[in-house]
Amino acid sequence: MKSEFGLVGLGVMGKSLSRNLANNGVSLSLYNRHVDDVEVDVAKRFIAEHDELSQAQGFDDLGDFVASLASPRRVFLMVNAGAAVDAVISELKSLLDKGDVIIDGGNSHYKETERRSQELESVGIDYIGTGVSGGEEGALKGPSIMPGGTPSAYPKVSQYLEKIAARDRWGGGCCTYIGKGGAGHFVKMVHNGIEYAEMQLLAEVYSILIRRGQTADEIADILSEWTDTDISSYLLEITVDILRKKEGDVPLIDKILDQAGNKGTGSWTTIAAAELGVPIPTMTAALFARYISAFKTERVQAATLYPKGSSQAKSMDIESLKKGYQLARIINHHQGIHLIDAASVAYNWGLNFSELARIWTNGCIIRSELMHELIDVLKDQKRILLHPTMLNRVIDMHEALGDVVASAHKTQVAIPCFSAASDYLNAYITANGSANIIQAQRDYFGAHTYKRIDDPTGASHHTVWV
Fold first, then answer.
1. Where are the beta strands (DSSP E) in 236-301?
2. Is 188 a catalytic residue?
């Protein structure tokens, strides 16, 4: 009997998605490559381990795998981004027919997705580049899914993707067609950029409270109270769990080396922002914070050479920290949506931002109460900081954010994301900034010209300065 859906690549995410599909009644064929003495009968052995996969078919021959699928064939790739995706697509091209669909569910770069979509379209094969967020647990129980690609292809796969997605508060699937080409992977990339900053902001809250003299348990108590308010989020909740975890009587967090890894999507987000001319300093600060964490040996050496700041930040008020944290998060989301909007305009994707917020309310790593609010906010205004509801909250929290930054700087606590968010907001609400100096400097040394505020024609001017 032919299977209605096929999945290639049984790593952590591929395994979880396979079980999710099976639990939702989808007949499956699973494929994993064969490597002598290393990867042998991976799919068959995986199927044997899980009762819900008892009707699935397992393969380590790609031709047999494709032959087991009903037409139009639907092949979901869960392999490493980059060359591995191209290698599998190259093999599949000779095995698939016109009208078949390939879905790339990995963290591929959106420009690669654009290229692959065009190449496959030329031979009549549909291509869907799909962002999948939620980690191993989300993939198993219901992730947030962000499919983009050939518009005509989505109806062929929508019922399967929407079936396995997380549910929003109203019972809808956290999956929607994002847009053509690389739109789905671009949105997932920016999701990860927002995620970087959300994680870093919590790390900075932890740093501030440690400097204030709080223990891990005390910090967990503070953050636990926050989870019962409108600033609740998945990342806040898991941070409480992390801080409470013990090895014996010692918090496990105290034993974890302070070097953060990254898989590239954060840097891709910053590069895309630079290419599109959109400022995302909060996300970029989070990326660079991970980079500087990697220089552990140098940091340890430098710490012995420089005098230490005040051991405690007693002046830091917890309510101010809470408000400053929430405002920094709002600014972070504002920047992320601005970047997605710029890409939507540049690539003619026509994205629905309220719907995007909706599918990020469950299943994904950045799900939060704020995201629920943004569903309505983004119906009216794509610039979050300009929405009337957000405007009042920003005004109320602005001073608190400044207090957090000032207090942390006085005690030499590194808070790159809080600082970047504060600087961004101050620049964003300044009608007349200092860029006139920059333009004059550029004209001075390079005759780049400038425009005058007293010339309504917008003509370019040049001055011989000396």
1. 246-247, 250-251
2. yes
